[in-house]
Specification:
- The structure is a single chain.
- The protein has a five-stranded antiparallel β-sheet with strand order 4-5-7-1-16, covered by helices on one side. A three-stranded antiparallel β-sheet has the order 2-3-6, with no helix packed on it. Strands 8-9-11 form a three-stranded antiparallel β-sheet, with no helix packed on it.
- With about 425 residues, it is of the alpha+beta class.
- The termini are far apart.
- It has twelve helices and 16 strands.
- The protein has three domains: about 15-85, no CATH class; about 90-180, Recoverin, domain 1; about 220-430, no CATH class.
């Protein structure tokens, strides 16, 4: 017989699963934040007897003792290990995502094409209602609570909205070649009509948009009924002041002004902030020469209703023609008792551009609200996007400089660099189909 009857100091070799589990546990003890799908499941199987709150406290305390950047773990793959009770919840969510990806590919769509087709508001950020409607259109039966869990799992910045990168990274399979083959399967101009079913939004759980319904999508013909006009701003609010450090050659004080004509005003018109204004004067700008311009979106069919609500039609056009930025990037920060940070906007998609910049009276760890400014379609601006030749230097500091760019809008750049800006092609514009 080949059976072992007795042995001294004998240790059976561990199988691959045990070795992988030990490796993931050691990575967790080392405060690692990047885990594969298999690693997440193995860790949750080992830690399922501990409450998620205890895991979070342990992870934070151990990482605080290490000499490394204390980045937020919420946007990393370790968040699933620190928030889920066990691995079965991950199984359920990933089964939903796998079923969704299979149905998308079965219809001959790439994930990027599917995102733009599902994003009926054309804002570059998919909300829960749009994803829920898309899953129903794909015949994927899902509950509202289950969909919200999937959105939270895919959402990298925890804002309740999914970017194109969030959607693709969450649904892409391990076979990247299959995804590439589908890129040319469907014409980019093909338009899918997906009925919108409204559900509770995650991004509207608090704040000023708490009661705002999901956006309504307008057709290209309906968008052509709106006019965008450039006009001088008549009212400003001081955002903050920045004092230049030693060693510069311009004025000491930088004052940034925000147009206070914001939001939807009259039932058929909306005033749009496209950037802030920078001066070296402590008094608010009084004319176009010292101030900046804003956009006014006007509905030429003001007398006609849209589902009985003209404001809904106007808000839909505002979100589609002039969406809010996807995020903001800090250009530089003026430190001191009253910090001032200048930000550049990142458009939601390559089809839009940001005309100006904004500022906040806080440090770079607190970005401005998304509705601080809005972007415009790339078709609205001149084709040449070169460094500004008609600009003037407003303020030159040690950490960066501020320019007065096109339409009086603030533009910022790093030290010893010249800011670049876009200029509208005309003072009155309409949406034109390609």
């Amino acid at each position: 017989h080949a059976d072992l009857l007795d042995a001294v100091n004998f240790e059976a070799p561990a199988d691959g699963c045990q070795v992988d589990a030990v490796r993931e546990c050691l990575s967790f003890l080392s405060s690692a934040t990047d885990y594969s799908t298999r690693g997440q499941h193995l860790l949750l199987r080992c830690l399922q007897l501990n409450r998620p709150s205890d895991r979070q406290a342990f992870f934070k305390e151990v990482r605080a003792c290490r000499r490394r950047r204390q980045v937020a773990w919420e946007g990393t793959s370790v968040s699933a290990v620190l928030t889920e009770v066990d691995e079965f919840k991950l199984f359920e969510q990933r089964a939903l995502l796998a079923a969704t990806a299979r149905r998308i590919h079965a219809r001959g769509l790439s994930l990027r094409q599917a995102f733009h087709a599902f994003n009926s508001s054309r804002s570059g950020a998919m909300n829960s209602s749009e994803l829920f409607s898309a899953l129903r259109w794909l015949d994927v039966r899902v509950g509202v609570s289950q969909l919200h869990e999937a959105v939270r799992m895919l959402d990298s910045d925890a804002d309740g909205l999914l970017s194109c990168d969030d959607f693709i990274s969450g649904l892409s399979s391990s076979n990247g070649d299959a995804e590439e083959k589908l890129l040319g399967a469907v014409s980019p101009v093909q338009e899918l009509i997906i009925p919108l079913q409204r559900i509770k939004e995650l991004y509207s759980s608090d704040g000023e948009h708490a009661n705002r319904p999901p956006p309504v999508s307008l057709t290209s013909e309906e968008l052509q009924q709106f006019t965008v006009t450039l006009r001088p701003c008549t009212s400003y609010r001081l955002v903050g002041k920045g004092v230049r450090g030693q060693g510069s050659a311009s004025c000491d004080v930088l004052c940034v002004w925000q147009p206070s004509e914001r939001g939807v005003g009259r039932p058929a018109a909306a005033t749009i902030t496209i950037g802030h204004c920078a001066t070296t004067s402590t008094t608010a700008p009084r004319d176009e020469a010292s101030g900046c311009c804003v956009l006014e979106l006007r509905d030429s069919r003001a007398s006609s209703g849209f589902r009985g609500d003209a404001s809904t039609r106007l808000q839909a056009a505002l979100d589609q023609l002039c969406p809010t930025p996807n995020r903001f990037r800090a250009v530089f920060c003026v430190r001191g008792s009253e910090p001032l940070t200048v930000w550049s906007a990142v458009p939601p998609t390559p089809d839009f551009v940001a005309l100006g910049s904004v500022a906040t009276a806080a440090g770079p760890e607190r970005p401005p609200p998304f509705d601080s400014m809005r972007c415009v379609p790339k078709s609205f601006v001149r084709t040449s996007a070169t460094p500004m030749t008609n600009s003037s230097l407003v303020w030159d500091g040690l950490d960066g400089n501020v320019w007065r760019g096109s339409h009086g809008l603030m533009a910022a750049a790093k030290p010893r660099q010249r800011a670049s800006s876009h200029e509208l092609a005309a003072r009155e514009l309409r949406w034109m189909t390609a």
